[in-house]
Sequence to fold (85 residues):
Amino acid sequence: MDLDLLTRPKPEPGPERWVTVKVVYGLPEAQIVKGYLESNDILVHLDYEALGRIYGFTVDGLGQVRIQVPESQVAEALELLEAVE
Fold:
């Protein structure tokens, strides 16, 4: 088992707040959204419950993945996400 899948880096501490711009169910979809935003120079952090990832649960919010970006990039990220929906 790849341990990188079980550990996820926390956003670096700093003055900027991280804001959730989208919530998806399942890490595969979140990785696609993350890749899209990062390809447009947006910093992204995926926030999710490890238990849901380990056991594959998708009920009661355990499969939720919150896609977060720095507060200064929220408007640009939302604009990019809106363009593909």
